Structure formats: structure tokens, C-alpha cells
Amino acid sequence: MTDAPTPGAAPDADARLDAFAHRHHGPLATAAAWWLRNRTTYEAGRGDERPLTGYALLASLYGAATSTAVAVLRSRPGRAALPDRADLAVLAVAVFATTRTLTKDAVTTPLRSPFATFEQAGAPGEVVESPRSGAVRHAVGELVTCPFCLAQWVGTAYLAGWAAAPRATRWVASTMAVVGASNLLQHGYGVLTSASEG
């Protein structure tokens, strides 16, 4: 079972699913009740918030977006060229820089604030945030504050962009790769100067 929603607050996805399972009968209500039992027993494992409903919704969204991109790209005439090794290196650095910018940069905090709360300052120009509570908000909060989590989404978007509009994607990826390399050099320089002073 889910906790009762705060008075005046909109019920989260788990609360709506729980209400659906109790009001209806049939295979969908049975599936909803099974899901809630499964989620509850999983989340009770360590006392940590593990919002399976939010994770399932995000995984479904990722699958739907990827499937749509593949379907659109397959319907286009001709075959998209695969990136070569040098392009993959640029894309890898671009994914690194893009995910760090989206998940950690202080300037992009307004994009994350509906799903995360400030914890403390991080590396120069970065912040450390934690996900807000709620089935979907917590899952999205984990996604948008974790560069490793978001890398899958960003990498898929770059490769889909590469297949659909290689020239524009190459420009964006090259820009972000330059930013990423610059960030690494700045951090490396900071470490070297700190070591030489200490």
C-alpha cells in the first residue's frame, strides 16, 4: 500500500494506481495490485526510496522514444551512415560533457529543481542535489541528477541525431566535446596548481 497523500496535494502515480486497483475488478486491476505488492516488497528491502513505478514509467518512455526514433529513421529513404571511430570518440566526449552540464552544472539547476533539491556545492561550477520524494518525481530526480543515468538517454539522442541530421549533430557534438575537453583541462590545471602549492 502507499502512504496517504498530503491533504491538498495531487496524488502521485502509486496512489492513483492503488485507488484504481481497489475500485475496479478484472485483469488490469489484478495487474495493478500485483505491481503495488511487488513494488512495496522491493522498496521495503533497505528502507531506501526505490520508486519502481517511476522507474517503470521512465523505462517505458525511453523504450517508446527509442522505438519511435528507429521507426522514423527506417521510414526514411537511404541508409544512415554509422559514425566512424573518430566520430565515436567525439560523441563519447560530447555525451560526457552534455550529461555533466545537464546533471551537475549550477546554471542548469532551474531545469532540475522540480525534481531535485540542493544539498551542497560540488566541484567548481557544479552542485550536488538529491531527488525529491514521490514515485515519479524521485525517479526523474535520480535521472536528472546522475550523469551515469542520463548518459544512456543523451547517447541515444546523439546517435539518433547522427542518423537523422549528421551535419547538425556533428556541430552540436563537436561543441560539447570542446567544452568537455576544456573542463577536463581546467580541472587538471587546478589539481596541478594545488599540488605545486601544497
Automatic annotation (TrEMBL):
This is Integral membrane protein. Pfam families: DUF1360 (PF07098). It comes from uncultured Quadrisphaera sp.
